[in-house]
Specification:
By secondary structure, the protein is an alpha+beta fold. It contains six helices and ten strands; from the N terminus they run αββββββββαααααββ. Keywords: DNA damage, DNA repair, DNA-binding, Glycosidase, Hydrolase, Lyase, Metal-binding, Multifunctional enzyme, Zinc, Zinc-finger.
Length: 267
C-alpha cells in the first residue's frame, strides 16, 4: 500500500495537471457513478488526506479515491499513449485540453458532495503531511491502547494518517524497539520521538516518489535500513535482518526488524 508521501506527490501532480482547468472528458468506470457527467466543470484542487485523494470540482462535488495496494493515478499529455495498464483496469478518467489523468486499479472511486467529505475521511487521525498535523494528538492516539503492538498502532490511520509498511518497519528500527512491543511499554520520550521522526521523514520524502530514503545518506546505494532486507546484514550491528507477518488477524503485513538491535517480543 502506498505510503503517505507517495499519495501526497500523486495529489501534487494531479493538482498541477487539473486544477483551474475545465474538464473536457470525465469517465468514472464504476457502476454506481458510471452515468455521472463532470464535463464542463472546473477542477478546484486535488488534496491528499492521509492515504486518500480528494479531487474537488466546482458545484460542490468531490471525487474520493484511494490507491490501497495496487492503484495508481497517471498523468499524460494530451495525445500521449497511456501505458499504466490494460483498459479494463481503468477506473477513472479526468481530462482537459492539455492533460489527462487516468486512474488504474483504484479500489475506491466515489463521487460525493464536498460538504460530505468527512464521511470518507473524518475517521482519520492527524495527517502527517497535512495542515491539521498535531503531534500531541498523534502521540495520545498511539498511547490510548497501551497493549497494542507498536507496528499495528502505527499502521492504524485513525491514530495518525500516512504511515505504511515501509515507515512502520523503519521507524521501529530507528527507535531501537521491536514492532511487536506494546506501545505502553515504550521508554519515556520514545513515542514523541517516533512521531516527530515520522513527520520529518515523510516531509523529506514527499517529492522523491520512488527514491524514498530513510538512511543518513552515507551509502547512497542503501536507502532503507531494514525494509525488504530479509537475511541481509543490519547496517548498525551486522546481524541478519528478519521478516515476519504482523497484523490484527484480518490483515497480515510484512514487517522487517533486526533481532539484535531491536530486542523484545517478535512475531
Amino acid at each position: 500500500m502506498p505510503e503517505g508521501d507517495t499519495v501526497w506527490l500523486t495529489a501534487h501532480r494531479l493538482h498541477a495537471a487539473l486544477a483551474g482547468q475545465v474538464l473536457t472528458r470525465a469517465d468514472l468506470r464504476v457502476p454506481r457513478f458510471a452515468t455521472a457527467d463532470l464535463t464542463g466543470r472546473t477542477v478546484l484542487d486535488v488534496t491528499p488526506r492521509g492515504k486518500h485523494l480528494l479531487t474537488r470540482f466546482e458545484g460542490g462535488l468531490t471525487l474520493h479515491s484511494h490507491l490501497r495496494m495496487d492503484g495508481s493515478w497517471r498523468v499524460y499529455d494530451s495525445g500521449a499513449r497511456w501505458d499504466g495498464g490494460p483498459s479494463h483496469q481503468i477506473r477513472a478518467i479526468l481530462g482537459n485540453a492539455d492533460h489527462t489523468a487516468v486512474g488504474y486499479r483504484l479500489p475506491v472511486v466515489e463521487l460525493l458532495r464536498t460538504a460530505d467529505e468527512e464521511q470518507a475521511v473524518g475517521h482519520l487521525g492527524p495527517d502527517l503531511l497535512g495542515p491539521d498535523w498535531d503531534p500531541a494528538t498523534a502521540v495520545a492516539n498511539l498511547l490510548a491502547d497501551p497493549a497494542r503492538p507498536l507496528g499495528e498502532a502505527l499502521l492504524d490511520q485513525r491514530n495518525l494518517a500516512g504511515i505504511g509498511n515501509v515507515y512502520k518497519s523503519e521507524l521501529a528500527f530507528l527507535a531501537r524497539v521491536t514492532p511487536w512491543l506494546p506501545v505502553g511499554e515504550l521508554p519515556a520520550g520514545v513515542p514523541e520521538r517516533l512521531v516527530a521522526t515520522a513527520q520529518r521523514l515523510l516531509e523529506a520524502n514527499k517529492r522523491r516518489f520512488d527514491r524514498r530514503t530513510m538512511t543518513s545518506g552515507r551509502n547512497p546505494a542503501q536507502k532503507l535500513y531494514v525494509y525488504g532486507r530479509e537475511g541481509r546484514p543490519c547496517p548498525r550491528c551486522g546481524a541478519p535482518v528478519r521478516r515476519a507477518d504482523q497484523g490484527d488477524g484480518s490483515r497480515e503485513r510484512p514487517t522487517y526488524w533486526c533481532p539484535r538491535c531491536q530486542p523484545g517480543p517478535t512475531g
